[in-house]
# Entry
Amino acid sequence: MGEKEKKAETIYITEEELGPPSQPGMPPVGMPATPTIRLCPGCQRQIGLDTVYCQFCGYGPLKATTSYEVKKKGTAALLAVIPALFGFFGVAHFYLERIGTGFLIMFAGWALAAASVLSWVLLGEWIWAVVLGFLYIVVFIWQVFDAVSIAEEHYRALETV
# Structure
């Protein structure tokens, strides 16, 4: 057989031939760190991770097993509270991949803080400083609850995948 006539062969390697894992809990050396295949529950054949219906037996629909990062409520709450204590509102929204909302909340917090201080210092109007300070606290509390509710929605959405 000439080189042009050679057919591509599928080579199957057993775990014994592949060797032991490089570290405990890791796949054997030479295997990908993240699996790209899984077994069909219907026929037990190997199928891709993103397969919706088994191409061999038609079993499905299958849940996608692509890994998604879970956004946790506790982390979102901490990222909403701790940076906001230092004047950085909206950090949790960055974590939750709501970048535009995060910047909007951050600039709103800065604008309220600046307006509150300036109205008291420059204008001597303490009543406006109190009103704007109250709005600052309202934005602080709202952004915490909003971040936690977005994290909950994100988690519920991943449960259905």
User: Anything to note?
Assistant: Residues 91 and 135 are 19 Å apart (CA to CA). The first strand starts at residue 37 and ends at 39. The helical segments are 15-18, 73-85, 91-95, 99-121, 126-159.
